[in-house]
Amino acid sequence: MLYSAAGLLSLLLLGFVSGYGRGEIALGVCFCRIFGIRRLESLLWVTLAYLFLARPFLGFVPTHWPDADMVLTARYGECHLADPSVRYFGLLARCLLAYLLFLALRKLPMAPKLMILHLATFGLILLSPVFFNCGPVGASITMYFLISFCWYLPILAYLLVDYGQCGPRSFFTLYFMPFFETSPNPQPVLDLPCQEDEDQALVRRSIVLSLIFSAVIALTNLIQAVLFHGRFYGHGLTLPWAPIPDLSVTGLTPSLLELYPRWQVLLAVIWGGLHRITGYMVLGVFIECCRLMLGYDVPRRFTNPWKAHSFGEFYRCIMPYYIVLMNRLYLQPIYNYLRSHGWGRKWGFEMAVWLSIFTANFTTHVIKDVQLAGLIGGAEYLWRSLITDFCYCLVLFICLRFLGLPKSWPAPLRFLLLLSLYSLVILSRTGGIWVSPLVRLRFAAALFLGL
Question: What angle (nearest 5°) sits at the alpha carbon of residue 158, between those of residues 383 and 129?
């Protein structure tokens, strides 16, 4: 009983400290544990209630500004995403389309069904602006349906690949996913069995992870507030020095170096990479702790990048579920297709790695910020995303495939170098689709070469 109470309190701490509505999600998990709601079939009903009672898309973190509410308000002066009727019809449309695609594609070979699924999703984004012109309520239903369908695309893909023979009841139980699964890279085993007989060990593991990462995210949020003169959990800090530039606010303009010392801009770049890493890991650990508290023995995928010897190893440590998703849904089918069409083992693998990195990143970034299709149109959104991600993925591919460090170098030095490298990779996507590759190139030339 004492362990259970400590687990609930530590999970609540992690949820509220990490923000983005995760404290409310943690409360829901505590409710389920207290009342013995653990099985997927029972969690389905809690998830349905959560979808109608919680704020729309609570816990999901888009990377682009503006968010869905702002897009609809800018277009019509009002937003109806929270209306029960909008949620109902948006949810119904998402489920119907997902199940129809599942029935139509599940008997096809892996590569064709995944390709058709992605083409259908991109086609949906292209067509969505037509429905965004149907008035404020119609636009809100379209937005709810579009975002929810895209955010759950990886789950639908996993269902097609690994659960093609499941019936309607099993499909919807797995497709809805528990309400705390708010990552675009879900854990790959959708029907993970509940192991209540190992409850004490799982709770102990959840407590340790929750306390460690609560401290990590609190520390990084404090450093963020100190560096940029932001607010620390609602409290302003009075500091005797000027803030460093926040590149997400100032943009990547070469004139920035005329206003700030070069070391401050470099510090902003490095900190941007480190802050992104902690954000990724805390989200993944939070979802893992939610599962542990309900008796699901999630594999330990998150490991410490401190002792990594290559950029590939470093990347696997901070984004384990994304690596699994990329290998399972992109690398394997692409490599098998290339090999069956005459590509050799070596060059077929290199081309498959490049294509899987690009398609996985492009798809993930598109579905995370699909609300922008309602702002600039589907075709413009996909085109801007394509240009942005091509440059980003090229840099990422080079780093993943060719950059390693000698094992004899001290761990702190290796970590600093790999973190700096990762920060440069992130810099190639900072500002997202609103910043052209040419502007980024000019900023990098001014920052590193003084041009």
Answer: 30
Taking alpha carbons only, the member of 195, 25, 35 closest to residue 11 is: 25
Per the CB < 8 A criterion, the answer to whether 322 and 364 are in contact is yes
- 329 in Cβ contact with 157 (< 8 Å): yes
Closest CA to 6 of 289, 278, 216, 279: 289
Quick check: 267 and 226 in contact, CB under 8 A? Answer: no
Amino acid at 289: C
Rounded Cα gap, residues 173 and 359, in angstroms: 28
Contact between residue 329 and residue 67 where contact means Cβ atoms under 8 Å apart: no
Q: Residue 271, SS3?
A: helix
Give me Rg for the CA atoms of the chain.
Answer: 22
Sequence-separated (6 or more) residues with CB below 8 Å from residue 287: 180, 181, 182, 183, 187
- Identify whether the C-beta of residue 254 lies closer than 8 Å to the C-beta of residue 442: yes
Asked if residues 408 and 358 have their Cβ atoms less than 8 Å apart, the reply is no
Q: Which residues pair with 404 in a beta bridge?
A: 310
Cβ neighbours of residue 199 under 8 Å, at least 6 residues apart?
295
Say if CB 13 and CB 213 are below 8 A apart: no
Helices 332-340 and 345-368: crossing angle in degrees, nearest 10, is 140
| Contact call for residues 368 and 417 (beta carbons, < 8 A) | no
**Which residue has 């091509």 as its token pair?**
390
Quickly tell me which residue has 């030095």 as its tokens: 413
pLDDT of residue 152: 95
Look at residue 230 in the predicted model and tell me its pLDDT: 87
In 132-242, alpha helices (H)? 135-151, 153-162, 168-176, 199-228
DSSP 8-state secondary structure symbol assigned to residue 179: T
Kindly list the averaged pLDDT for each block of 10 residues, start to end, along the chain of length 451: 89 95 96 94 95 92 86 92 95 97 95 95 94 92 96 96 94 95 90 88 94 95 92 86 88 87 93 90 93 90 80 90 92 92 90 95 94 93 94 91 86 90 89 87 88 70
E-strand stretches of 191-280 = 231-232, 235-236
Q: What pLDDT, on the 0 to 100 scale, is given for residue 45?
A: 95
Q: Rounded to an integer, what is the distance from CA 245 to the centroid of its chain?
A: 25
The HSE-up count of residue 53 (CA atoms within 13 Å, CB side) is 10
- C-alpha–C-alpha distance, residues 221 and 204, integer Å: 26
Structural tokens at position 360:
């996985």
How many Å apart are CA 258 and CA 253, to the nearest integer? Answer: 10
Peptide linkage before 178 cis (omega within 30 of 0) = no
